[in-house]
Amino acid sequence: MKIKMNKLKNKKLITIGIPCFNEEKNVLEMYKETKKVIDKINGYDFDFLFVDNGSIDKTREKINILIKKDKNVRGVFLSKNFGNEASGLALMDFVDNHADAFIMLPCDLQDPPGLIPKLIRQWENGYEIVLAQYNKINDSIFMTFMRKTFYLFFKKISNIDVPINVSGFGLMDKKVLKAITSLPEKFRFGRGLSIWVGFKRTYINYERVERQRGKSSYSFFDYVRHSERGVFGFSYLPLDLIVYFGFILTILSFLFIIGYLFTVIFFGNPINASIPIMLAIVFFGGVQLLAISIIGKYIQVIVEETKNRPVYIVDEKINFKD
Hints:
Blueprint: E1 12-20, H1 27-38, E2 44-52, H2 59-69, E3 73-78, H3 84-93, E4 101-104, H4 116-124, E5 129-137, H5 141-157, E6 166-173, H6 174-181, H7 190-196, E7 201-208, H8 220-234, H9 237-267, H10 275-307, E8 314-318
Parallel strand pairs: 1-2, 1-4, 2-3, 5-7
Antiparallel strand pairs: 3-8, 4-6, 5-6
Helix pairs in contact: 5-8
């Protein structure tokens, strides 16, 4: 049964962008499942854009099979793995210039292509950003706790309202896409940028499923590094805390010195041991090291921006007109 959409004289074009890294077991199946869904949608034209982020398996070969099979499939192959954010930016950079909207769909099949009609309906209702928000994810208790804790913490300290449990799956109108790709920064946190640019936004709920094929290449430390991009890219609270904590320690130290001098003058030296001194040195040394480390992270962001290196390098583009 065909899904009814707005019937327009000139069909709107929607690009489905699929980021890949070592997804040889999912590429063909993802295309097949997505094609089943979009073939039932009237009133729109669709094309596929695959970005291979330096895979070391047969992902590139699988994408080339699809390109030869379907003229509406294009491929961008990066020269090496540049990280998760590079995949997303490359997809947005190479979306067809005539596309009216862009749908990001991860290749691992944890986000069902069957939600595409719902994304489009919300777009038709006037929303310019439609994000898929999962109610449940079949992940370890530890990772679920860490993910929720980070986003709750991030919402408190940042100047943007990043929603919890939102994957990379969603739809963007062409003007949102243009706004995000025009941002010059290199140290990128895509989920934050998609909120920062504004526009009318809504969510659809779904249950994220377990990965059926292959193994996720995203480690715990990748999550940590990704979290750093959000914290140091969208919040100055860590720097503010250093200032406040330093001010409080200075006041307390001054009061301690006054009190200690008063005690020595009237009662003699009450401290005749090295342990308290050592503890104070260790404590204040740790505070200083932590403060320098936080400042260093912000300096790292500045350095990355001033290098002006590209976020990614393209090795090959296939099936592009230009």
